[in-house]
Specification:
- The complex is a heterodimer of chains A (about 150) and B (about 140).
- Chain A folds into 2 domains: about 1-30; about 35-145, no CATH class.
- Helix content of chain A is about 40%, strand content about 5%.
- Chain A has helices at about 1-25, 40-45, 60-70, 80-95, 110-115; strands spanning about 30-35, 145.
- Chain B has about 140 residues and is mostly helical.
- Chain B has one domain (about 25-140): Cytochrome Bc1 Complex, Chain D, domain 2, CATH 1.10.760.10.
- Chain B is about 55% helix and about 5% strand.
- The chains are: A mainly alpha (about 150), B mainly alpha (about 140).
- Chains A and B meet through loops of A and helix 5 of B.
Chain lengths: ~150, ~140
């Protein structure tokens, strides 16, 4: 009886593992993966006004500039209490990616421009609203999964 | 044994009563009391929902963000509705307490938002009187 149960659990687990494997293989070509945002402060505070961008989307120098300039965050005051800001700064710089540290816009990084070389009219659609609205086209962007379409 | 049961029951009841009575109201009242204490001037009598509504609807001049001359620019003229960030398009939960009972229950969060958005919309910090009026208006909506 017990061994029967064990067997069923084991085969179930094997099936799940197989499924996960095949799903991974099927997706590998369709998604670009970026490590997701793990810090709770970053997720909450950045995510209040826009998708909380993954640390890997900008180099550390860019994140430092952004966190130094919250009083004028892309034209808006986005001040944070200093302890919260320090925690977010740490989480962003620790997992930062590569790119041009003199640019603070993800959408001005060379890799981004290369991948978004299409008609400017796309950006003025109401559902898109802004270039920073990754999720308008990449539905799973918040999880760090960027669908290539 | 009976005593333990009785104790457990009264604790459970007590928590239930406290939760029902508050639902955020106690926290909000405390925040308003704080602003009332700061606003204490010879001419301060009470917060006004009407003044709060005028502040909410604007329009104002001199804000840091030209696209948002009023709170209503993002939060919409109906504070019970879902707002939309003027630039990113991100949804904003309703401001009206009736539609979003969590509003104005976390003092740090309240100060954070006033600290930013008064500059963004008015171009200056808000007074304690304005903050109290604003919360009073939205608590009645």
């Amino acid at each position: 009886m017990l061994s029967d149960l064990h067997f069923r659990v084991l085969t179930g687990a094997a099936a799940v593992a197989l499924l996960a494997l095949s799903a991974g293989a099927a997706r590998a070509g369709e998604f670009e993966r970026v490590s997701p945002v793990t810090d709770a402060f970053t997720r909450k505070e950045c995510g209040e006004c826009h998708m909380a961008f993954q640390p890997g989307l900008l180099p550390a120098a860019s994140w430092i500039r952004i966190m130094d300039g919250l009083q004028n965050h892309f034209g808006e005051n986005a001040n944070l209490p200093s302890d919260t800001a320090a925690a977010i700064r740490k989480s962003l710089t620790q997992a930062a990616g590569r790119g041009d540290g003199s640019l603070i816009r993800i959408t001005e990084q060379r890799w981004w421009l290369r991948k978004h070389d299409f008609a400017p009219s796309i950006w003025s659609r109401r559902t898109v609203a802004a270039k920073s609205n990754c999720e308008a086209c990449h539905r799973t962007a918040a999880q760090g999964l960027y669908e290539d379409d | 044994m009976k005593t333990i049961l009785f104790l457990a029951a009264s604790v459970a009841l007590g928590t239930g009563v406290a939760l029902a009575a508050s639902g955020g109201d106690a926290e909000r009242a405390r925040i308003l009391d704080g602003y009332a204490a700061q606003a204490k001037a010879p001419d301060f009598t009470r917060f006004s929902a009407e003044r709060g509504q005028a502040l909410y609807l604007g329009p104002h001049a001199g804000g840091k963000v030209a696209d948002t001359p009023a709170c209503a620019s993002c939060h919409t003229r109906d504070p019970a509705g879902t707002g939309r960030h003027y630039k990113t398009g991100r949804d904003i939960l309703p401001m009206a307490v009736s539609a979003n009972p969590k509003r104005f229950t976390d003092p740090a969060e309240v100060e954070k938002r006033f600290g930013r958005d008064c500059f963004n919309v008015l171009g200056r910090a808000c007074t304690a009187l304005e903050k109290g009026d604003f919360i009073t208006f939205l608590s009645n909506r």
